[in-house]
Amino acid sequence: MAPLNPKTSALLVMDFQVAIVEMVAEGKDGLLTQTAQLLEAARHAGMKVIYVVVGFRAGYPEMSPRNQSFGPIRESGRFAAGAPGTDVHAAVAPKAGDVIVTKHRVSAFAGTDLDMILRANGIETLVVAGIATSGVVLSTVRHAADADYKVVVVEDCCADRDAEVHRVLVGKVFPRQATIARAEELASSLR
């Protein structure tokens, strides 16, 4: 993998909220450790760190009853502002200077100001970590590639409840639009 320019790259840490991390309980300790190490290396190198979180206003005005994916969330009361489990997991928590983007759909780009933040900061390369591989990672990688960003998917900083789906996406689907890397490899290249 070619070295990254930290000044024109951003690390996207997507959906690492407590309630979502708990859904991928198997392997979560390794996932959090690798992501924390990558965050440390990215910050040390001066790379922009952007968190993407799921969140809704009281009453869920952003949510259509026709949305099959998000309808159950509305019924459950999850991910409303201040609801339990909405905070980013303490092991990978944001620090001063990090940007937080709140999304209301699966993709980090749909209906958010993420693209504006990236372009305003001269970002050309996105380093992607997220839960779930079949959700936010897939949707964001596809949009980013279509928007002409270089994309690096950090395979061991992504997780899915279905290990086979994760394997197929990382091994067969993402390489068409992104470089696949591991956290240690990226962290070493940034040191």
Features:
Rossmann fold, six-stranded parallel β-sheet, 7 helices, alpha/beta, single chain, 191 residues, 20% strand, globular
Which CATH architecture?
A: 3-Layer(aba) Sandwich
Q: CATH homologous superfamily, by name? A: Isochorismatase-like
Report Rg: 16 Å
Model regions low in confidence, pLDDT < 50 over at least 5 residues: none
List the helices and strands and how they pair.
Layout: E1 9-14, H1 18-23, H2 28-45, E2 48-54, H3 71-76, E3 99-103, H4 114-120, E4 125-131, H5 133-146, E5 150-159, H6 163-173, E6 179-181, H7 183-190
Parallel strand pairs: 1-2, 1-4, 2-3, 4-5, 5-6
Tell me what the structure shows.
The protein is α/β, with parallel strands linked by helices and 191 residues long. It has one domain: Isochorismatase-like (Rossmann fold, 3-Layer(aba) Sandwich), CATH 3.40.50. The chain is 37% helix and 20% strand. The protein has helices at 18-23, 28-45, 71-76, 114-120, 133-146, 163-173, 183-190; strands at 9-14, 48-54, 99-103, 125-131, 150-159, 179-181. Strands 3-2-1-4-5-6 form a 6-stranded parallel beta sheet, with helices on both faces. β4, α5 and β5 form a beta-alpha-beta unit. The chain is globular, with a radius of gyration of 16 Å. The mean pLDDT is 94.
